[in-house]
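step: validate -> pass
step: tokenize input -> pass
step: predict -> running
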Amino acid sequence: MSAVEVTRASWIVDGAEILAETSFSVADGTATALVGPNGSGKTTLLRMVCGRLSPSRGSVTVFGRVPDDRDAGFRADLSELLGAPGYYGDLTLGDHLDFLGRLWDVADTHAELERLGALHLSTRYIDEMSSGQRQLAFLALALTRPSRLLVLDEPEQRLDAAYRVALGEILAARRDEGAAIVIATHDDALRDRIADHVVALEEGA
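step: predict -> pass
step: emit ->
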């Protein structure tokens, strides 16, 4: 059974094809990169994998079941970063990570932040951070959660080169430990570092 199975999935709104018919599968311990210009449907496809959208046609399954982000069992298997997550303005990033640790039984809640090279952000409030620092914070939150499937939408955005390299190493290690990864990216170096397969999307195709 594939971790992710996308079969002739498309998304149509008011007669306009936002995502053209697409098929691919992702096995455990592999990473698939979605590439293509803005408007080609990458984020739409990721939202389908995360259970936030249902395809207009075709099907998407995750670990053999229809994705449903309201289902606790499904959420336990998945960690994702699709845009900015919700957060508490009066808690530091370290507080958020410790909270996640208690929820998901993670002993070293600052490990992923340290691997990103951003441990210095642990005492900062997210609202005080620059856009690049916020991206590091959100990545740390997504990576700290245990998951069988990791879904990331352009995780490299607003990151300096050194942080992109660190992110690539973290994702490659996560893949090698057995997680399935689906990532949309414009970064060729990140794609080449982690992707076992590439799905190229074009606007309307």
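step: describe -> The chain has seven helices and eight strands.
step: cleanup -> pass
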